[in-house]
Design goal:
Porin, single chain, four-stranded antiparallel sheet, SH3 type barrels, 4 helices, eight-stranded antiparallel beta barrel, elongated, mainly beta, 2 domains, 14 strands, about 55% strand
């Protein structure tokens, strides 16, 4: 029974530390968690990036106070009052005050390149009409993913709904601005808004090819801009070509 209570207390303290890490800078002013350096040393940089020089080294056993977080970097204060930035790779090897490991949330370009699930919303132009989209993406590998998109087209004379599935190829997933190429297929339904002449709704197959870029912003947020060239396989004698330009924001896991 005592062991279980001890483990519960440790879990609560660890949860408080992680909760503080997920807050914004004002939250740290109320609660600034302390961790213990378990590696032989921890490097303190003058800024939140590997390009900033190392100006101080905290030794094994030192208690360091976490002040704030910026992507994969944590601003800390040492027992001697030195304040600097430590990368999450070194922070994951620190311990809480009871000697238990702490799971630090990881962000940054590395997490961006290794993302699995992505959820997003976008808006743009679809052959002169407005288009609103919601998409879900799953990455099989850092270079290949499947993208599922549901869209609504809002025009002056007709509205429409479109659902597509795409294979997305990302040659350089580790880049902060990461270009991609895609091909896909789906269905589109057009609903004319005319009341003068009775027009029937049309549902057609659609295929597309496109290019775009994902831009890593911060934490788990992405900005996406893309262009698609759609081919609508109509029941008429000729197919229809449609250009789509869109942009939006996504969140990845």
């Amino acid at each position: 029974m005592t062991g279980r209570k001890g483990m519960t207390a440790i879990s609560i303290r660890t949860a408080l530390v992680v909760a503080a890490l997920l807050t914004s800078a004002p939250g740290f002013a109320k609660y600034q968690p302390e961790v213990v350096v378990s590696d032989p040393y921890v490097d303190l940089h003058t800024g939140p990036g590997r390009g900033y020089p190392i100006f101080y080294v905290a030794a094994q056993g030192d208690r360091i106070t976490i002040l704030k977080q910026q992507t994969d970097w944590y601003k800390v204060r040492t027992p001697r009052g030195k304040e600097g930035w430590v990368n999450v790779d070194q922070m994951t090897s620190t311990l809480d005050l009871d000697g238990q490991p702490i799971e630090f949330p990881t962000y940054g370009v590395n997490a961006f390149s290794q993302r699995r699930w992505t959820f997003g919303f976008g808006a743009g132009d679809f052959d002169g009409a407005r288009i609103l989209s919601a998409d879900l993406s799953f990455a099989f590998t850092p270079n290949i993913s499947a993208d599922f998109v549901a869209s609504q087209v809002l025009g002056d004379y007709s509205d429409g709904y479109m659902g597509t599935v795409s294979i997305v190829m990302t040659p350089w997933p580790e880049w902060r601005i990461s270009p991609f190429f895609e091909i896909g297929t789906g269905m589109i339904q057009i609903n004319p808004q005319t009341t003068i002449v009775q027009s029937r709704d049309e549902t057609d197959e659609i295929a597309h090819a496109g290019v775009g870029a994902d831009v890593y912003l911060s934490k788990r947020f992405i900005f996406r801009a893309q262009y698609k060239r759609h081919t609508v396989f109509t029941s008429r004698n000729s197919n229809e070509e449609i250009d789509e330009w869109s942009a939006g924001f996504s969140f990845f896991l």
